[in-house]
Amino acid sequence: MKIVYYSFGGRYSDNPRALHQRLLARGDVDAEHVWLAGPDHAGAFPAGTTTVGLGTPGALAALESADLVIADNHLPAWDKRPGTTYLQTWHGTPLKRIHRDAHFTQPDGEDVMSLLDDDVTRWDLLLAPSEAAAVPLRGAFRFPGPVPVTGYPRNDALLAPDAVHRRARVRAELGVADGATAVLYAPTWRDDDRFGDGPDFRLALDLQRFTERLGRDHVLLLRLHYLVPDALRDLDVPGVVDVSRHPDVNDLYLAADVLLSDYSSAVFDFAVTGKPIVHFVYDLERYRDVLRGFYFDPQEIAAGPLLRTSEEVLDALADLEGVRVAFKERYEVFQETFCHAEDGHAADRVLDLALNRTEVRA
Prior knowledge:
By secondary structure, this protein is an alpha/beta fold.
């Protein structure tokens, strides 16, 4: 069996990485594993991993000879041969509207959308991390095939037996002192910053004020979206660590004591940990009415406070116990709604589905 993997522009990451690692650990499938590697990421794959350059003839040949293709995003056009299973894991519970449901249209948007829709026609399975997520995922892509609710393979690590030891290791590697509160700030991207005539990329959170107010007791782990990872390349603020290029976001979820985000799907994954979540939604109306729109109203479902200013954010981060108490019941409902399938065994469920389908089709 030949399995070809693709993640986020040719990285070794996300659900495909989790499935690859689980297959290797199980050792029950005799398979050739091939990853599509982007030019900027080829050096980050584990030693011994077979890679082919994304966008090259070798990548096309790999896809067209695969028995199973596992991707977390859209692939370039390829001729899918009979008997191949294409598993689309996607990469998050959609809070913000995606694909054909999004308000904002990038330049040449219809041409791009047609290419993406063409990829969707090749999908055989589209994973959903929860029953709630399955509805918008199916609708956004107009996907008529199976959307099994499995949980996300990448989230198994958050519930693994070694999670405590992994947390300690990652915090030490990042320089987070024992007893310090690690704040993971993971904002999503804005369409107009990347494609439109909107403002240049900026960080709305006042980092200098974060350092002044919270001091040595707090460390801010800044995780920019993968589409804009180098937007603050020269960042140099005491107490702020740029982890935008860190290879595994699960390391950061485990290392963190609280997640600060906005409309990112990170909030759904982080909720698996049970740790507090704070939302910095300074542009809520614009994001809702102009840029994207929402599938779920943050004001109704949020498992933590929705805050508009840096100072309000800092107040919440300084009183995390107060946040926990105030949002205890809402957090539990959030977990029941969006994390009910996360039990640490999603990868096995997904592999059994995909491999059984591949065997039947072969």
